[in-house]
Amino acid sequence: MPDPTTPTGPLRGLRVFDLSRVLAGPTCAQMLADLGADVIKIERPGAGDDTRGFAPPLMPGTKESAYFVGVNRNKRSVTLDIATARGQEIARALIAKSDILVENFKVGALAKYGLGYEQLHADFPRLVYCSITGFGQTGPYAPRPGYDSLIQAMGGVMSLTGEPDGLPQKVGVPVADVFAGLYGCIGILSALRHRDATGIGQQIDIGMLDTHVAWLANQGMNYLATGENPPRLGNQHPNIVPYQVFPTQDGHVVLSIGNDPTFKRFCEAFALTHLLEDARFATNAARVEHRQLVTDTLAPILRGHPTAWWIDKLEALKIGCGPINKLAQVFADPQVVARGMVREMAHSSGATVKVIANPVRLSETPVDYRRAAPLLGEHTAEVLGAELGLDAAAIAALRAEGVV
Question: Are residues 68 and 175 in the same domain?
């Protein structure tokens, strides 16, 4: 039988030296790992990735935090103290066998260990080197540390999120970290294409603030078009009305009417054709201009029936709608279940852990799930033995010295 830990994805055969921790870098490296790359995660001896301690909660039956398990599957953990000369020597020996390096240290921090981009590029010109920081490698903020909520604040999304009269709000999940990791992965794949054509690697410089500004999307463009700061609109859409949350008889529903023909169909179905004769409702542009009137007019209508009634009726009319699910409902949703968005993996603790699946669906080379997130240093002896030819006594000596 084939070894279940052997990669089968499209990036099989590629080696990643992962010097990242917490979320942005590990998200990037996990995406590469899911696609078949062999990712060696370098962790501090005795401590490991900071997120190992981000608990509770722990995954049932393990001593591992749910946070860590969520972004470190398909990786092998090697403990290594890169602050030591011997640790740096081992790191360079492993990098010599790698195609990609991912790191999220502060700007310039790795250079003092001989592991900066310019230092490694001189010796390993084919290496693709991805640096993920809060503010990028250049600019006045480059030396600053970056944190998700800080980036959400500085990047503008908090000014756009929340009720009009309430406080600015961050998004409920660390989107600045996640987007930085995904943009990093895109950059790596592009650099690999260039490397394969020319033989030359390069540095990918990912700043969390840059990527955050990039995904301001229509709201960023609204500002560039008008010079006006978009207001917080709560659950309403800045460019489309009605496209928002409405209270129902027993809860809430999201109503997403994206164009005028759909609004016409909505009015005809629910005895509201008189609204079509009102210039304030006739076009989307008019409805945006009179959004409060539209909201006040439709709210009593939506409140007249339960959420399930509205979803049944609106889906039959092919009008966008949906409930506001809590996570228990999300993971029980028949569409989420049918798409296999939760996977179970055998963990080295002996437990089985549930993880959120990778959403990328490839018809010929699907994502594989080889290894659950590793125990700290679980693969140190395996990697140093197989890759560098060190025997058990040599590895034991390194452990005694605190190098691994």
Answer: yes
Ordered alpha helix ranges (H), 35-165: 66-70, 85-95, 117-123, 148-154, 157-160
The pLDDT tens digits for 126-177 are 999 999 999 999 999 999 999 999 999 999 999 999 999 999 999 999 999 9
Same domain, 297 and 149: no
What band does 318 get if pLDDT is binned at 50, 70 and 90? very high
Give the total number of structural domains in the chain. 2
CATH number, residue 297: 3.30.1540.10
Q: Catalytic: 177?
A: yes
Which residue of the set 81, 177, 210, 368 is catalytic?
A: 177
Chain segment 282-306, per-residue pLDDT in tens: 999 999 999 999 999 999 999 999 9
Distance of alpha carbon 237 from alpha carbon 257, whole angstroms = 10
301 and 389, same structural domain?
A: no
